[in-house]
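Handoff note, outgoing to incoming analyst
You'll be picking up this chain. Sequence as last confirmed:
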Amino acid sequence: MSAVAARLGAWVLDRLAGIGHGARFFLRLLALLPGAFMRPRLVIDQLHFIGNRSLSIILVSGLFVGFVLGFQGYYILQRYGSAEALGLMVALSLLRELGPVVAALLFAGRAGTSLTAEIGLMKAGEQLSAMEMMAVDPMARVLAPRFAAAVIAMPVLATLFSAVGVIGGWGVGVLLIGVDAGGFWSQMQAGVDVFGDLGNGVIKSVVFGFVCAFTALYVGHEAQPTPEGVSRATTTTVVASSLAVLGFDFILTALMFGAV
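Most recent structure output, in case you need it:
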């Protein structure tokens, strides 16, 4: 019995140490974030790598999500004689929930894994250690610009996802099914609140950007410096980022809409 208690205690202490190490890592990244913008060229390069190269999957996915919302929303709303409210339903679904969440999940799968693999391979190739030997802080030179670029790119990508999704819902509802175009846009304009709906979606996407960027960089930095370690780290990034995004989405939704 004492051996089981000892192992349980060691496991708890190990988890607590990991949480503390992760918190220190996150605070260090936050402290280095302003200095990252003193190297704008590095941030711009990472914005291109993280944001621009994620545009295709974000836009295509947003378009098809809008298509599906247009079909599903119409066949639900027409039962109650409210087909003209299709634009409002599509816009609110995307701006409040689907845009930030789905874009963050896609971002974690595309950009997050790339960041983890890149940092993990740099660690395996001892490039980070070589920087330290040359008195260059790898967190300030390598990790902070990537962190800044990811935090900037995530809200932009989520906004583009929602915008393309609305266009997709309009295409299905108005052009394909035949919903009145004036009702589609007027209901949307009257029902969407800039600060309450669009603002909440932007706040969610910013939080998700912090979560996905931190998870990708931390897991890559702590990966075992072997091919197998880097491979496991990329898988861990997707799983951990996805679960964190969904968990924070629930918390933020409850806070924003007054459930708690």
